[in-house]
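Check out one such.
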Amino acid sequence: MQSIDPASRLDAEFVTFFAGAQSFSLDISHVREIRRWSTVTPLPHAPKEVLGVMNLRGSVIPIYDLSARFGLGPTQDNPRNVVVVATIGNQTVGLLVEAVSEILSVARNQIQETPDIRSESTRASITGIIQMEEGMTRVIDLEAVIQCKPKQAA
């Protein structure tokens, strides 16, 4: 009798959303909340994908335009736009997206590797592909997307 690897049955949950009319997903463990889009305060000399900062209950967080970050052009103004507030380590950031789609629960063995397309930035930002009924969604690596570097202890 063949044994089944118990790790392959474990479910993973992802929040799926659209950026640049493309489907992306983020491990739900990183998602803190989803907020309506509101005006941000721009920062001088910030990269083009950093729209500025937003006050989130007393904390100032950077807001990234995910579509612009992936080279898909800036996110167009739309009343459905939302900010996915996410955390990585002790850093909190906001990701501007066109719309949140669903929460997707899949077995970890259903997440396929990112194909080798000879782009290190793509392979670093996209950790896998999930096949869905209506297409595919890309699993993003939040740390690579925001290019945060771990802070060293003094």
Q: What stands out?
A: The CA atoms of residues 20 and 72 lie 5 Å apart. Residues 120-125 form the longest helix (6 residues). Confidence is low (pLDDT under 50) at residues 149-154.
